[in-house]
Specification:
26% helix, 360 residues, single chain, 18 strands
Length: 360
């Protein structure tokens, strides 16, 4: 048996419970977690913004050590350090055939499986977003693990599984920031801090961080922000004033609220680009009129998982880490145990801190 954070029902508080985890079956891998990041997507799953079968063990950003492997698994062996990949591509759907593996139609089919049982009553448990990282150990499909790149500490490697792939990918793959361009990043949580670092790595000439919390300014500047704006009704005007009244070339929205998406759009120059990373609810309606779409000539695009291919991008990120360009530790503002996840959720709702990291 292992300890895990169980979501018993949508909208219910997480419960720390003992679960019975089976040995890995064919094509599966058992992993002992070293660390798991607490992501806003976990909050979205718990409150019903995103739907998954429940009861479930949440957590999708993690890294650990392989304990055992099932029949037919090759390339991974007990003792190997691995990063969990919550969205494995099937390789055969239409999106995968186009090389857009981040849009794989079958990536989340495993979330509907029963992967473990609650020890107290034998009730079925589902693996959240495929990998159930809020647990001391987990069993996942072999496609859900990737080798930890050389030179990246195992605990820090957990952040590569979502926050860094998403923030870095939003800047480099979706927005395609070029050297010398100006960038605004809305939201200075874990993904936003990764996006700020990515903008600096891309050679942006000006990087403006936007957040509701004045207390996050030091975090944002450490990540690479040259300017900091406390979010308000005047955010877009402030950004335009900081950029010679032109607006930024690129805005990256990491919040998922209609008001911030609209502000991000309004903060870009004529012909600018806005990439939306944040996951909002269906009630978050963003309005534009036909004339402004024509006049401003801006581009608005969604961004799933940073438009990343983990197998391709993890080695690139690792090279940035080894070279000192990417500092994973600056994303983490709190290191907690399983019992601290509920408090980390509360901090996310309140807009406090960067990434909370569960360390096992």
């Amino acid at each position: 048996m292992v300890r895990a954070a169980v979501l018993p029902a949508v909208g219910a508080p997480l419960e720390i419970a003992e679960i019975d985890l089976p040995a890995p079956g064919p094509g599966q891998v058992r992993v002992r977690l070293a660390a798991a990041g607490v992501c806003h997507s976990d909050l979205s799953l718990s409150d019903g913004t995103m739907r998954v079968p429940v009861p479930a063990v949440l957590g999708h950003e993690g890294a650990g050590t392989v304990v055992s492997v099932g029949e037919g698994v090759t390339g991974i062996a007990p003792g190997d350090g691995v990063v969990l990949n919550w969205a494995p591509s099937c390789g055969s759907c239409h999106a995968c055939s186009l090389g857009e593996v981040w849009l794989c139609a079958n990536a989340l089919t495993g979330a509907g499986d029963v992967y473990a049982r609650r020890a107290s009553d034998g009730s079925d448990l589902h693996p959240g977003l495929n990998v159930a990282a809020f647990a001391e150990e987990t069993v996942v499909a072999a496609g859900c693990v990737l080798p930890v790149p050389d030179g990246v500490p195992l605990t820090d490697a957990a952040l590569l599984g979502c926050a860094v792939l998403t923030g870095y990918g939003a800047v480099h793959h979706s927005a395609r920031v070029h050297a010398g361009e100006t960038v605004a990043v809305f939201g200075a949580g874990g993904v936003g801090l990764a996006a700020l670092q990515a903008a600096r790595i891309a050679g942006a000439s000006q990087v403006i961080a936007v957040d509701v919390s004045p207390e996050k300014e030091s975090l944002a500047r450490e990540a690479g922000a040259t300017d900091y704006v406390v979010a308000s009704d005047a955010t877009a005007r402030e950004i335009r004033s900081l950029t010679g009244k032109q607006g930024v070339d690129v805005a990256v929205e990491c919040v998922g609220r209609a008001v911030t998406i609209r502000a991000a759009w309004d903060s870009t120059r004529r012909g600018g680009r806005t990439t939306v990373v944040g996951i909002g609810g269906k009630d978050q309606q963003v309005n534009f009129n036909a004339l402004e779409i024509f006049h401003w000539g801006r581009t608005l695009s969604g961004c799933v998982y940073g438009n990343s291919d983990p197998a391709r991008d993890l080695p690139v990120l690792a090279e940035h880490v080894r070279a000192g360009r990417l500092d994973l530790g600056t994303l983490v503002t709190e290191r907690i145990g399983l019992d601290g996840i509920a408090g980390a959720f509360e901090n996310m709702v309140a807009g406090k801190g960067g990434r909370a990291l569960v360390v096992f």
